[in-house]
Amino acid sequence: MAGIFDTGWTPNKITLLRVAVGFAAVSLFGRGMWANLFAVALTVAAIALDALDGHLARKKQMATPLGAQLDVLGDRMIENVYFTYFAVVGMVSLWLPVLFFARGAATDFLRGLALKAGHSGWGANSMLQTWWGRALVASRWSRGSYAAMKCLCFCYLGLELALTRGPVALLGSVAGDLHMTIRTLAHVLTWATAAFCVVRGLPVLIEGWKYLARTTAAPPRKTGMARGTA
């Protein structure tokens, strides 16, 4: 890892690499047993890169508002592309990617309003003013736990593809009871990840409403031009 710090790699470059690795992994799913297993390995690499870009930003003091926004964008893209794929092939409910997309759109919109009001997404000037909001959203244990849950969820679904699905599966034709157990655990993991996602978004939704109320309550600005003029 010390070698990375001595090269030209920046947190933003690592974030872009993480997104590329995630998309490469999803493109390999469903292409056979070994492709599925390689996709699982790439998934682990993508989650590891997610931790690395933040560590590098802190280590080299390269954290910027643009980098924070790019990191969030990368998270959204990874979540949506994985859950959308698994929904398309029928392994998870279609409502799962819909939930992640809706939650991400709502929280990012409110963060944008707070940013216009002069509040960042982290630090002393954060839009999150309550201790429990900061603990759920910005603490290392929360971010680390959420990343671990997503990694476990994506890897489990990928392993299920390799073990039980397709013409060449490691377990071949599994018994009905075993298949039901595997499927039940998949549902538990995916919806537990979705629940944690929603819980982590609640502080942003709750505290972000005041910025929305402030924006909608503000009087319209005078532009100096009559309505209808160019």
Strand percent estimate: under 5%
Mean pLDDT across the residues is 81
What summary fits the major beta sheet?
Answer: none
Structural class label:
mainly alpha
Radius of gyration: 21 Å
Description:
The protein has 230 residues and is mainly alpha-helical. 73% of the residues lie in helices and 0% in strands. It is built from eight helices and no strands. The chain has helices at 2-5, 11-28, 33-59, 65-88, 95-116, 131-137, 140-164, 176-217. The longest helix has 42 residues, at 176-217. It is globular.
Task: Describe the structure concisely.
73% of the residues lie in helices and 0% in strands.
Characteristic key phrases:
mainly alpha; disordered C terminus; 230 residues
